[in-house]
Structures are given as C-alpha cells and as structure tokens.
Amino acid sequence: MKKLLSLSLAAVLAVSATACGNSGSNNADAGDSDASAAGTEAGTEAESTESTGTESEGTESASADGGAFKIGAIGPMTGAASAYGTAVMNAAQIAVDEINAAGGVNGYQIEFNPQDDEHDQEKSVNAYNTLKDWGMQLLLGTVTSAPCIAVEAEASADNMFLLTPSGSAVDCISGENAFRVCFADPDQGTASAQYIGENGLAEKVAVIYDSSDVYSSGIYETFVTEAANQPFEIVASEAFTADSKTDFSVQLQKAKDSGADLVFLPFYYNEAALVFTQAAGMNFAPKWFGVDGMDGILSGVEGFDASLAEGVMLLTPFSADAEDELTKNFVAKYGELHNGEIPNQFAADAYDGIYIIKAALEQAGCTPDMSASDICDALKTAMTEITVDGLTGSGMTWSADGEPSKSPKAVVIEGGVYVGM
Amino acid sequence: MSFLSYLINGISLGSVYAIIALGYTMVYGIAKMLNFAHGDVIMVGGYAALTMMLNLNMNPFVAILVAIVVCTVLGICIETIAYRPLLGAASPLAVLITAIGVSYFLQNVVLLIFGSNPKSFQSAVTFGDLQLAGGGLVISDEAIVTIVSCVVIMVGLTLFISKTKAGQAMQAVSEDKGAARLMGINVNGTIALTFAIGSGLAAVAGILLLSSYPSLTPYTGSMPGIKAFVAAVFGGIGSIPGAFIGGILLGVIEILGRAYISSQLADAIVFAVLIIVLLVKPTGLLGKAVQEKV
User: Fold this and answer.
1) Contact residues, chain A, for B54 at CB < 8 Å
2) CB–CB of B251/B14 below 8 Å?
C-alpha cells in the first residue's frame, strides 16, 4: 500500500512536470504551436516557391545585369501563432511587389523568400539555414519572440542583418546586427502607463498578469514603475500562472472589490477571451486596456463572442482605420488580395520592415553583389541615419542598439473593429 | 460579501474536482491502479460535446448525452486494450506507465484532429445568474448546476454501490479479487463497468468545467486531472465520500488561498496541503489503513 502510494506520488510529479512543460511552452509567445500537423514543411515549401514565383519573372532580367537583393523571412505560417506569421508574409510580399514594380532598390529588384517556423525555435533555426543556402542577404524576422532569440544567436555569429517586424522580447535584438520595427516589451508597459495617465482614462487601475510568462511580467514590471509617475493609482495587481490560466474569478473579484475603473491586461488574447467571459458573468464592466498581444481577440479564439470585447482599448502602433493615404492604400490592397481581411499590426510592421530595409540599403548604397556580411556592416550605420515614415509611425528612427523610436496609437474596439482614439 | 463569492466559486470548482476524483478513486479502489489518462478523458468529452453542438447543431442536452456515451466507450476501450493485459503484470509500474502513455496518446490524437488553437465552449447552462443582495453577490448559473450535479452524482453513486447487485460486486472485487472470482463474480466485467462509470462521469465533469471556464485545448484536462487526483488522495483514495470531501476542500483551499494569500502561489498551496495531510494521515482524510499482506 505504502509502496504503491509513493510510486503514484512520484508519477504525479512526473506527470505534473511534463504538464507544466506543455502549458509553459504553450504560453511562451503568441500562443504556441509545438505540434502542428506533420507535413506542413513540404506544404510551405511549395507555397514559398509559388509566392516567390510572381516576381521571379521580373527578377530574371534584373539578375542578368547584376542580380537582386535576396531577402528571407521567417515566421509561423501554420500552427497556433499562424495568424501572426501569415499576416507578416502577406504584407511583406505586398511591399516587395510594390518596390519591384516601382524600379526596385538602387535599381535592383528584390527576391523574397518566406519560410515557416511554426513558432518553434528549432524549426526557426532550420529555416534560417535553408535561407542561407538559398543565398539570403538580409533577414526579415523572425515574427515571434522565442524563435527570434534563437535565430538572432545564429545571425549574430554570421553577421547577417536581421530586422524583426514583431519580436518584442528584449533579447530578440541582442546583437549589433539586429533591429526591430515594433516596440520592446518594457516600452509597452511604460507607454501604456503614460497613455492611461496622460489621457485621464482612470484613477484606480487594477492589473492582472501572467507571472510565469516573460512577455507579460516584463510589461507588468515597467508598467508599475512608470505608474508611480502618473496621476493614477494601482489598486490591485493580481497574477496567474500557466498552470492556472482558466479561472480568473478571484483576480476579477479582487479587481472589482478594489474599485478599479480600469483593468490593464498585459497578456495574449487567448486568456483575455476567458477574462472577458468571466467578467461578464459577474457583472464587472470596467474599462479594459491591453497591449499588442490582445491583437487577435476579435478573430483568434474560435467560438468567442466578440461582442464581449466591445470597448476594449489596446495600444498598438497601427490602426487599420487611420485616414492617411498610406494606411488607406495598404488596407485596400491587403483586403483585395486576401478576401477582404483587415490587416493587423503584424502586417503593418512587416510592410514597414521591407520599406525600412529599402531605405537603409539606399542610404548605404548597397548593391546585390556585396556579401551578406558586408551589407550587414554597411546597414549597422545606415540604420541609425535613416528616418522612415511608415504605417506604424511617422519619423521612425533607430538607435545603434536596434530599438525604434516612435509613439504608439491607442485603439478601441467598437462595433467589432478597431477605431482610433 | 466577496468572501461568500470566493467560497461559492471554491465549492463550484471543488465540485468539478470531486466528480473527476470519483473516477480516480473508484478505479483505484477496484483495480488498484491509477488511471492517469482520466484527465484526458475529460478533454475528449469536452471536444465531443463541442463538436456535437457546433458542427452538428445538436441540442446541448443531447450533446451532453452523446459526450457521455463517447467517454464511456472510450473508457471501456482504454481498459480493455491498454490496461487489462497488464493488470496481472509483476510490477505495478507497467500499468502506471501505460496510463501516462495513454494520456499523451489522447492529447496528441486530439491535437492532430482539432489543432492547438483554443476553442471557446458555449455554456450548456443558460437559465441566468442568481443575483443576491441587490446584485452585490452574483452566483453564476454554472456554479449552481455544478454543485447540484455533484451532490446528485454522489448520492446516486453511493446508492448504486450499496443497493444494486453490480455495486455490491464492485465492493466485493475491491475487497478481494480472488475470493470474488470464486464467488462467481465476473471480475473483468466489474472492472470494465467501473471504468465505464468513471469515464462517463469524466464527460460530465468536462462539460461542467468548460461551462465555467470556456477554453478548450488538447491540454485542458491535464491540470484538473492532477488536482482531482490530489483531491482523491487527500480524501483517502478508494473512498467515495473521501473523493467528495477532498474535492470540495481542495477547490475551496485553492480559491481562498489565491484570494487571501497569494494569487501566484495558489497551486503551491494546494500541493503543500496535500503533503501536510499525508504526513499527518498517510491514508488521507477518510482512507482506511489496510495491513499489507506479506
């Protein structure tokens, strides 16, 4: 009896350890996809040749007189984070086609090669090696943070220029070769606190965050630090972990009891969908404020009643309903090519990313016959000298450590779409 | 007022644990094995009900019945194919490892069929929340249904075991397999029946769990499964009232711990309580100490 019990307890330990492993990796970034169906590799291989096929006709002639810039891209096009990767690849393709049609970069065409990594570190590094064999000179990617950190280690060693459209973890751009289009995690916390404070959105703020996730707790910490300088008060900060991310009743009850009029939710839309459902069940309707992980709440969770997300505010560098020419054109073109879909901020980041690469290449006067390492050295300086007006901000500049300087926009969900505030 | 609200949430969560724990405790009591795939049967039940409701547009109650049937059949299949050949094995480890294997098998099959995207589960209960004290205390309809179902299941199961022939056969098998067989009881049939009942209850637990916390992924069952196992050990594994008390206590401790001690340490508190109880009373709250026959 005793033997059996100790045996069983040991087994429980084993099971719980592996269970944590599962949920942990699930939570790693943008909702995981460790286990996408086998055979996707082959599928994306076919897809990528197809999509690069469109401009290969145009590039043939260009390659004859000196070649084309080879830009590779890596992101999750299948699996749970596929919403992000697909948006990035679609939008980057639009930017590449536009540039090629307008005469290219320094008179040379661009060849674009997107690869799938299923939001998996190992597959991401494999995709990177595939692209290197292809002759990649510049990398747009990777899309999600955890794989990006792994690829950046390789790219840094190879001195390959890396521009991640949306890898927000600090370590995504640890080397001198790496830059990013989006905000870093800590900046999101600071910017959110400033936005709430400066616009007088609330006096009492509650925060619910995932203490087991680097993305969520990173934003939480900088939010709290910045909140000290702002005219609002944090009345409750409640955590959850990867193992208990289904029951938010206690956290919500405490936020409700604390009299908070705004609740800050720095985590992904999967959990946010549960929070909104449970809050509706307990008649708790504060203002909700999210970060870029909230992008996806309207369509990412199958079966989720999107009307519960009405009035949710989120900080994003891009809103599809902005009135400027650039955004209007991009949204129209994206919708035309992809069944009327409205592009999210990942798409905008990627579109800007291609134009940022173009601007930097032109600034440095690079040509396609230069090696990847020479281009990278030239761009390290060029990136700090350029100013880019894009979808995700006007007058964007970069510091040598790779961080962009731009101001975020806040949007609110009204009638099932993002509306600028 | 918020204390009451925490308490009710805790009892509701605990009721789900209790129903799952019943599956563990019955199987352990009768087959002397731990069915670690039990948590994943819950998840399969959730997917079965969801598919019926969303893709085949079935009435929720019909969908629940179908889910129960699916899980019952699944439970019997698991028992016959994976466990029965090993129950006589020299080491109890063999069947334990098989159970873990079945657990991963179920998770990955579901992952292949439905993908890893979380699915939102439409609540099967929709008669409206109960508002008390002028809206200050809201008791969700899911919580009420969960608690009521738990009590009904517990009473029904106790009656079944003490009053019916099949139930008495279960008691006999749990007492002494060899003697029961000599008395003409179909031991394998009784064990299969136990798995069937446990798995059917798992489907009910899954639907109740998902009605309150509507996010369904292939890993949904693993954490509640482990917590329910803790509840079963806590209450005294093998004892049906023990599973009930263990489950409710565990749910209440978890929610109150999260509310008043630390929201990060909720799980640590639950497992710490288990360790303390086992140190003080190694057989659990209601467990009987059985002399090991050497």
Assistant:
1) 303
2) yes
